[in-house]
Design goal:
Helices cover 40% and strands 11% of the residues. By secondary structure, it is of the alpha/beta class. The protein is globular, with a radius of gyration of 17 Å. The structure holds zinc ion.
Length: 189
């Protein structure tokens, strides 16, 4: 297994990765309810797993993955137990400072990989702010909007919108694969 985790690197290794023009992935998600059957770390677990597996499988260039940002923008979930949200401005500032830190150490290719629907608009607009206002060129992606994932969701969706929804089939399936011991499938509705 390659070394891909930012937090496991030594000082000298960062210099090597920056010189090699590594891509740095910043996973960002949420801690919030996911129905009665999934744990509140569902978004973080899915997003972080995808980031790590992508980094492990890419051999053409080096990729580093930051620890996932577990707090997102989830005020709409606060009526349910377990949700923790940041204020809009705090969320923007946290992401800005993390990206600025990565950039300050010589990394020029930064990908913010989002795993929570409530973050999508903020993360998309943040890309514009970081790139054009802060001088930190950034790419942002919400993982289920990647072309092949979006197509597959449309294909298996039972709805006209082509979405399989929050705590729906896709997230349940991913959690049954990634951390089945935390899923209570009997209480899925
Ligand atoms: Zn989710």
């Amino acid at each position: 297994m390659k070394k891909i985790h930012w937090e496991e690197m030594r000082r000298t290794e960062f210099e090597e990765f920056a010189k090699a023009n590594a891509v740095v992935i910043i996973p960002v998600a949420s801690t919030e309810q996911h129905g009665n059957h999934l744990p509140v770390n569902t978004d973080m677990n899915c997003c972080y797993a995808i980031a790590q597996r992508a980094a492990q499988s890419i051999n053409e260039f080096p990729v580093l993955v930051l620890p996932p940002i577990w707090m997102g923008f989830s005020p709409q979930h606060m009526i349910f137990p377990g949700a923790i949200t940041l204020k809009h401005r705090t969320f923007v500032e946290v992401l800005t400072q993390v990206a600025a830190g990565v950039h300050a150490h010589g990394f020029k290719k930064i990908l913010i990989l989002n795993g929570h629907g409530g973050n999508t608009d903020i993360v998309d607009s943040l890309r514009v702010k970081l790139t054009h206002e802060d001088g930190i060129p950034t790419v942002t992606y919400t993982y289920w909007e990647m072309p092949t994932v979006a197509e597959e969701m449309k294909r298996i969706s039972q709805t006209d919108e082509g979405s399989i929804g929050h705590a729906g089939e896709m997230e349940t399936s991913l959690q049954l694969y990634l951390q089945p011991e935390l899923v209570d499938i009997g209480s899925a509705v």
